[in-house]
UniProtKB/TrEMBL annotation:
Source domain of life: Bacteria
Organism: Butyricimonas faecihominis
Protein name, UniProt field: Uncharacterized protein
Stretch forming the signal peptide: 1-22
Gene3D superfamilies recorded: 3.40.390.70
Length: 316
């Protein structure tokens, strides 16, 4: 019976892995010299949708567009493929407000403001639906998509949101975050050693008894996760396995970990799992040298009650 269960888990993992790989998209290639696109955003009256959209621009420098000319969406800087899409339906302002509020309060709020302001695509297109191909095909519909004109399309803005489950909102959150992280992964040179330190198996199994933390500090899932050098994964706790995030998503996990983890928790993990510490220090150096940001300042802004001290990531 145990052999049969193992086979089922592996087949499920391979199926899910295949689905994930089919959904990957090209990255945004930021071109600072292009500057901001020439949109005239009204500030709007207090409490209006226009004011809400303007607040995104004011805080992060990005334009949220839901009623835009088709030629603007199809204009690309590199002449590559355009995508089939259906615009937000007339009278959907309430749904636009809901998705913009969701991005501000749930997605962007999960990271330091300076980080989002630097790496969020400058144009965020809200659409009813969009395909990852130039012609319509139901199987090619996606929730989020990085466009070739340095933007991000967010789909399903409309009546479909009324039936969204927590899983749907989580998927939307993940899609937007992945677009930001893949932008970094695909446009900057990440240290090879960061990836070489781990083995990207399709799945890792864990058992609450067989893989119990000998010191009783972490549950079996986190003990196996950290032991193998990861800080994030697609976890199937009830089935006793997880699928590690790879490459761009793995990098994104570490960026999130470094920016949002309180010092006491970081100390606790580093003291037990040297491989996590090694990888974290490599990405802290990457943040300084490639992203041109200060990991200490980013963490301090997000964890003011348990900040990292200056020099925390200095090599010992």
């Amino acid at each position: 019976m145990k052999t049969i269960k193992m086979a089922i888990y592996i087949m499920l993992a391979l199926f899910l892995s295949g689905m994930a790989s089919c959904g990957s998209e090209d990255s945004i290639n930021p071109m600072p010299e292009l500057g901001n696109p020439p949109f005239d955003l009204p500030r709007g009256e207090e409490g209006s949708l226009e004011e809400l959209i303007y607040s995104v621009y004011e805080k992060y420098g990005s334009f949220v567009l839901y009623d835009f000319d088709q030629t603007e969406f199809y204009t690309t800087w590199n002449g590559r493929t355009v995508y089939w899409y259906a615009p937000v339906k007339s009278g959907s302002e309430a749904y636009v407000r809901q998705i913009v509020t969701f991005m501000q309060e749930k997605v962007f709020a999960g990271y330091p403001e300076a980080f989002i302001a630097k790496f969020l695509p400058k144009k965020i297109y809200l659409v009813d639906s969009i395909c990852k191909t130039s012609s319509y095909n139901k199987s090619n519909l996606v929730n989020t998509l990085v466009t070739n004109n340095h933007g991000l399309a967010v789909s399903n803005v409309g009546v479909k949101m009324e039936s969204f489950t927590d899983s749907d909102w989580d998927s939307m959150n993940s899609g937007i975050v992945t677009a930001i992280m893949n932008n970094i992964y695909n446009t900057m040179e990440v240290p090879d050693e960061f990836f070489a330190l781990v083995t990207y198996l399709v799945i890792y199994m864990f058992d609450e008894e067989e893989n119990a933390d000998p010191e009783g500090e972490f549950d079996a899932y986190h003990y196996v996760l950290y032991t193998n050098g990861f800080v994030g994964a697609n976890a199937f706790i009830d089935y006793g396995f997880f699928m590690p995030h790879k490459y761009g998503e793995d990098l994104g996990d570490y960026l999130s970990f470094l920016m949002s983890t309180p010092k006491s928790e970081m100390d606790r993990i580093f003291a037990r799992f040297d491989i996590v510490k090694q990888r974290a220090f490599l990405i802290a150096d990457f943040i300084v040298k490639k992203m041109e940001m200060d990991p200490i300042a980013l963490q301090n802004s997000f964890c003011p009650n348990d900040p990292l001290p200056a020099g925390y990531f200095d090599k010992e």
